[in-house]
Amino acid sequence: MLGASATFAEGDDVIGSPQRAEERNFPYRDVVGAALALILVVVAFVVPRLGNETITPIVHRTAESVRDFADAAPLFGFRDVHVGWGTPIAVAVAAAVVLWGPGLAQTLAWRRLTVGVWLGSALWAMALALVDGWQRGFAGRLTSTDEYLHEVPRVTDIPATLRGFADRILDLQPDSWTTHVSGHPPGALLTFVWLDRIGLDGGAWASALCVAVGSSAGAAVIVSIRALGDEAMARRAAPFLVLAPAAIWVAVSADALFAGVVTWGIALLALSATRTVPIPALVAVAAGVLLGFGVYLSYGLTLMAIPAVAVLVIARTARPLVGALAGALAVAAVFTLYGFWWFDGYQLVQERYYQGIASDRPFAYWGWANFASLVCAVGLAVPAALPRAFAWSRVRARSPVPVLVLSALLAVVIADLSALSKAETERIWLPFEVWLLAAPALLPRGSHRFWLAVQAAGALAVNHLLFTNW
User: Fold this and answer.
1) CA 66, 378, 455: angle at the middle one, nearest 5?
2) Are strands 466-468 and 77-79 parallel, antiparallel or unpaired?
C-alpha cells in the first residue's frame, strides 16, 4: 500500500506543478522517517533493561527508585497492561476520525471545523483517560501530594503568597512548596487557587479545566495556520490534531493548561499580524497577555518566543510586536509589583531541580531518550512528515506549516540541551508538541487515513500497556 505512487499522488494538490515530480518520489522518506523514530523508541525502552551503569535512566538505582521513576522509561509511569470502560469509546473515536475525519475537515464550514477540532480533541483525551477509570484516570490525577491542589488550602493571602513565593522554592525547608509548585512560577498555583475561590474545588474541576483548555490547542493551531494564509493545510492538519497521542497527557496534566494558554497566544498573534481581526492592535496586546502569563505558568515557556518570531516572519511584519510586548510586560509588572521577581524564581528553581530526582537522571540517557518520549507523544506520523518540513522550497516560501513545525522543533532541541528537561518531556513539551502535530498535513492526502490509523494505534498501545503518571 505504501509503495503505490498513485495513492500518494493525491497529495499533489497542495503544491505547485514544478514540485510534483519531487513529491511523487518522496514517499519512501515518510516510511524511513517513521521507521527511524520507531527504532529510537524501541532502543529507549530496551536500554534501561540492559543494566548498563552509564547509559541508564537513573543512577544510584534501588528497586524502589526504579519502580517509582524508571519502570516505563523513557515515559514516566508504570508497566500495567489493562483495559477500562474508556477502551471501547477510545476505539470508536479513533475509528470515526480515521474513516471520516479527513473528509469532514475538507467540507465543514470553518467555524464548525474549529469547534469540532476542540470537541473532538477533548473527547479523544477523555476516552483515553477513562481507560484508567474515573478516579485513577481523571478526577484524582491532580490531587497527589506532589501536585498544585495540595497547596491550594495553604494559600490564604494571595499577595503574601507572591511576596514569599521564591523563599519557599528550595527543598529541605519546613514550608517548602511541593514538587510541582516549586518547579513553576506562581501563575500555575494561582490558577488553581482562583478556580477554588469561585467554588470549583477538587480534582475533577481542576482536571476538567486542564482538559478543556488543553484540548483547545489544536483549534488554536489551525486558526493560526489559516490566519497565516493556508486554510487548505489547516484543514489537512485538523484530523491529526484531534487524534493526537499527546492527548494521553492532556488528560490530565497542568502542562495541558499551559499549552492551551500559549497556543492561543500564538494564534492571536497570527490574527493580529495578518490583520484578519477588526482591531489588530488590541488583539496583539491580548496575545502578549497570554504569552506573558505563560511565562508565569512555566519557566520553559520563554521558548515560545521562537514560534512567536516564526509567526512574524511568515506574516512578513513586526507590527504586532509593540502591542504584544506591552501585554506581556503588563503581566510581568503585576507579578513584580506584588513581590515575585521572575529571575529570582528561575535561578532558585534550577537549584531545586537538582535537589530532587533530576540529580539521579543522567543526561547520557535522557539527552536522547527525551526525543523517544516526544515521538510517543506526537506519534510516528510526525517524523514521517518531518523531511517535508525541511524542504528548502517550502521554508524559503515561508509556508506556515513547515516554518511553525521547525520553530517548535528548535524550541525542544534548546529545551533538551538545557538539561532542565530530563524525563517527563511527554508532558513538559506539550506546548511545543501541538505545533509538531501539524506536520502530517504535509503528507499526501491519500495517505492520511493510514497515518491517522498509525497515530491511533500508537496512542492506544501506550495507554493500555502503561499507566502514565499524568
Assistant:
1) 105
2) antiparallel
Cell (9 digits) for 432: 511545543
Please give the Cα distance from 184 to 177 (Å, whole number).
10
Q: Does residue 157 contact residue 340 with C-beta atoms inside 8 Å?
A: no
Is the four-CA dihedral 135, 137, 139, 142 of positive or negative sign? positive
| Contact status, residue 82 vs residue 131, Cβ threshold 8 Å | yes
* pLDDT (average), residues 374-386: 98
Phi-psi region of 199 (alpha: psi -120 to 50; beta: other; left: phi over 0): left
Q: Which of 275, 272, 274, 301 is nearest to 285 (CA)?
A: 272
Cα separation, 187 vs 165, whole angstroms: 11
The answer on pLDDT for 51 being more than 90 is no
Cis peptide before 261 (omega within 30 of 0): no
pLDDT digits (tens, 9 = 90+) for 309-342: 999 999 999 999 999 999 999 999 999 999 999 9
CB atoms within 10 A of CB 363: 13
Three-state DSSP class for 422?
coil
Q: Which three cell numbers stand for residue 117?
A: 477540532
pLDDT in tens, 348-378: 999 999 888 888 999 999 999 999 999 999 9
Full DSSP string of 155-182: -S-HHHHHHHTGGG-SSSSTTPPPHHHH
* Spans of all domains in the chain: 5-251+329-468
**Percent of the chain scoring above 90 in pLDDT:** 86
**DSSP for residue 147:** S
| Residue-wise DSSP of 65-131 | HHHHHTTTTTSSEEE-----TTHHHHHHHHHHHHHHHHHHHHHS-HHHHHHHHHHHHHHHHHHHHHT
pLDDT band of 26, cuts 50, 70, 90: low
Question: Each residue of 160-212: pLDDT tens digit?
Answer: 999 999 999 998 778 899 999 999 999 999 999 999 999 999 999 999 999 99
Q: Cell triple for residue 248?
A: 494521553
C-alpha cell at 348: 532558585
pTM of the model: 0.94
φ, ψ for residue 468 (rounded to 5)? Answer: -80, 150
* Cβ 218 vs Cβ 96: under 8 Å: no
CA nearest neighbour of 425 among 235, 338, 436 = 436
Rg (CA), the chain: 22
In contact, 160 and 169? CB cutoff 8 Å: no
Residue 105 has pLDDT above 60, yes or no: yes
